[in-house]
Design brief:
By secondary structure, this protein is of the alpha/beta class. The protein has twelve helices and 13 strands. It has one domain: Vaccinia Virus protein VP39 (Rossmann fold). The strands form three sheets. Strands 1-6-5-4-10-11-13-12 form an eight-stranded mixed sheet, with helices on both faces. The chain has a three-stranded mixed sheet with strand order 7-9-8. Strand 5, helix 5 and strand 6 form a beta-alpha-beta unit. Helix 1 packs antiparallel against helix 5 and helix 7 packs parallel to helix 8. The longest helix has 14 residues. It starts with a helix and ends with a helix. The relative contact order is 0.14.
């Protein structure tokens, strides 16, 4: 089966399909993300890694996305600095570039793939999971995967999308917004809607036999207030966490949960420049590499460093 067909199935499998690998050829089969259920799509389309409208946008970190997936507000931000979220992107790079082969990165709110695909570019042997309950996002994610890893790249065998929404309930059903900035629908939005099933972090980790991912990143439009605290207890607690916080009270709630569960804050900013949500970054104190990452705190607090162009920052942070 060709990579294009496999990515097509991954992008368009029905919502109750649990999780699908983006590549599973005999040479690149990844048993860790092989699906329990993989439904064939009900309609056909081509996921080719091409951009039919507006061409390709290349960020300063090398990640490519289709221009037509960028909304006007983002486009204005990218004119100032050509990264999706400049401060968060640079901190993310300082973390993910220190991952080891076969570590796990979990992107809860994978959207069009900026962070998940970047992680694989930085550490090709990384295992990457992206939660994408929105059909709109997961189709673009799959297309961008081929755009960034053309041909039958082995990296795609380590890249998996889970079509469920991570919540506080297993096997629940919810309706979500299908586009940018969407959360659980309450009848007051004009966004397109999509139905999905739900899963808890603990259940997902048990299904995949994941113990303490290297990094879990969340951007879930307010649901972080309940979902993130649920991740912090038990054997699957993340070693590192990056949380997008969407209100001041949520920021305070998540910050208290982290400190109450044995995490130390590496960076926090309620209103970072050029992005709509706050940032919390923390490390689990009992992790054997915690001291190493705590050593990054004074560097991450250096506004001059975080204000550097990405290529300059990438070089400087190697010395930390």
């Amino acid at each position: 089966m060709t990579l294009q067909v496999l990515v097509f199935l991954a992008a368009l499998a029905r919502n109750h399909g649990l999780h699908v690998p983006l590549a599973a050829s005999p040479r690149h089969r990844n048993t860790h993300c092989a699906p329990d259920v993989c439904h064939r799509a009900e309609r056909t389309t081509d996921i080719t890694g091409s951009c039919e409208k507006g061409g390709v946008h290349v960020f300063d970190n090398g990640v490519k996305v289709c221009e037509d997936t960028i909304i006007a507000l983002q486009r204005d931000r990218y004119k100032e600095e050509n990264l999706h979220e400049p401060v968060e992107s640079k901190i993310f790079y300082s973390l993910i570039s220190r991952a080891n082969s076969n570590d796990t990165f979990v992107d809860v709110g994978g959207a069009v793939g900026f962070y998940a695909l970047w992680a694989l570019k930085v550490v090709p042997a990384l295992q990457v999971w992206a939660f994408n309950p929105s059909p709109y996002f997961r189709q673009h994610f799959a297309n961008h995967a081929i755009l960034n890893f053309p041909g039958e790249a082995g990296e795609l065998g380590r890249l998996c999308q889970d079509f469920r929404a991570m919540t506080m309930a297993d096997d629940g059903h919810m309706t979500i917004g299908a586009e940018y900035g969407s959360g659980v629908q309450n009848g007051t939005t004009n966004a397109r809607q999509a139905a999905c099933t739900t899963v808890t972090y603990a259940t997902w980790a048990g299904e995949k036999h994941v113990q303490s991912p290297f990094l879990v990143m969340t951007d879930i439009q307010g649901a972080e207030a309940t979902v993130v605290p649920s991740m912090l207890a038990g054997g699957a607690a993340p070693s590192l966490l990056m949380v997008g916080t969407h209100r001041d009270d949520i920021h305070t709630t998540v910050l208290g949960a982290l400190r109450g569960h044995g995490y130390s804050v590496l960076y926090e900013e309620r209103r970072p420049k050029s992005q709509p949500d706050g940032i919390l970054v923390a490390v689990r104190d009992q992790w054997q590499r915690a001291h190493e990452f705590k050593g990054l705190v004074p560097h991450l607090a250096n506004a001059t460093a975080l204000g550097m162009p990405f290529k300059q920052y990438a070089g400087v942070q190697k010395q930390w």
